[in-house]
Amino acid sequence: MSTKNLVAAGASRLAKAADSGVDPAVPTEHQPPAEARQLVPSGFDASTLVGKTASEQFQALDAAYANAEGAEFASIAAAKMVGTIQRGTVLKALIEDDRFKAGGYTSIGEYAKKVGINRQYVYDLITDAENLLAIRPLIEAAGHPLVASHAAILRPVYDAKGPAEAQALLELAKESGKLTAASLTDAARELGFLPAIPGQSKPSASSALPVTNTLAYVGAVYKAVAPANVRALVERDPAQALQLMDEAAAEIRKIERRIHEGRKLAQQALPNPGEAPVDGLINDGP
């Protein structure tokens, strides 16, 4: 089984498991009720330090960091997201009020050496955790974890343009077949959220495929899957016919998404958007 399939299978099992919402980086007594568990954790709860001595606070934070570090390597993307959030929020709490000093450390850099990271990575983890928590609604809506490199690209769009634009960016990046920082960056450039690479320019309206040719292409696809053609293909090779239908359906879904986004853009540009025709999905003809 490929790595991609393993990740997909693992994500499916996590989603269906009764304890899939349990955060392995948080002690049992601090776990939220089952009905309140979500995909994105809230991070370390500093209120649990109230009433403890400085030494007890340090010990609790030190143990929480070790738990978070273990959680990060327990599985792939989900645990990495959880680990990043937990480690970053724990480190932030250690820096606040110089709590690391209660453990005998004169600086957060010294504590960083103790846990095997450098001082700059402490602040990188804090930033990564903040980015992931900032797009928490987007991750919850997507239904799958994201990692720090994803959040670093999505958060500026989420903050500046809003959840809908960030969701469009995420969906476009997924169309490449693999969600990575590179595919998100390419999608962000395509949508105009990032400047184009020097020497490359976005296609102008005049250089784009003419609408008449586009409609002709769609019409050709429609004719290709006409009942008579499909029956003939099924008789020759049922497996190939099924593959053709699946591929055609996938392409049509992509086209529908692009049409939906294009309609929204056109409607917003109308002097009186309320008079625009009602949007709808592509329906099969008779």
Write structural notes for this entry:
The chain has 286 residues and is mostly helical. The protein folds into 3 domains: 3-137, no CATH class; 147-190, no CATH class; 211-275, no CATH class. Helices cover 61% and strands 0% of the residues. It is built from 12 helices and no strands. α7 runs parallel beside α9 (181-190) and α11 (227-236) runs antiparallel to α12 (238-269).
In a nutshell, what does this entry contain?
Helix content is 61%, strand content 0%. The chain has helices at 3-16, 54-72, 77-95, 108-114, 119-134, 136-142, 148-161, 163-174, 181-190, 211-224, 227-236, 238-269. 21% of the residues are buried.
Rounded to the nearest angstrom, the distance between the terminal CA atoms is 42 Å
Number of separate domains: 3
Helix-strand category: mainly alpha
Q: Describe the global form.
A: elongated
- The SSE string, one letter per element, is HHHHHHHHHHHH
Give a quick set of tags describing it.
286 residues; mainly alpha; 3 domains; elongated; disordered N terminus
How would the blueprint of this fold be written?
Blueprint (H helix, E strand, L loop, with lengths): L2 H14 L37 H19 L4 H19 L12 H7 L4 H16 L1 H7 L5 H14 L1 H12 L6 H10 L20 H14 L2 H10 L1 H32 L17
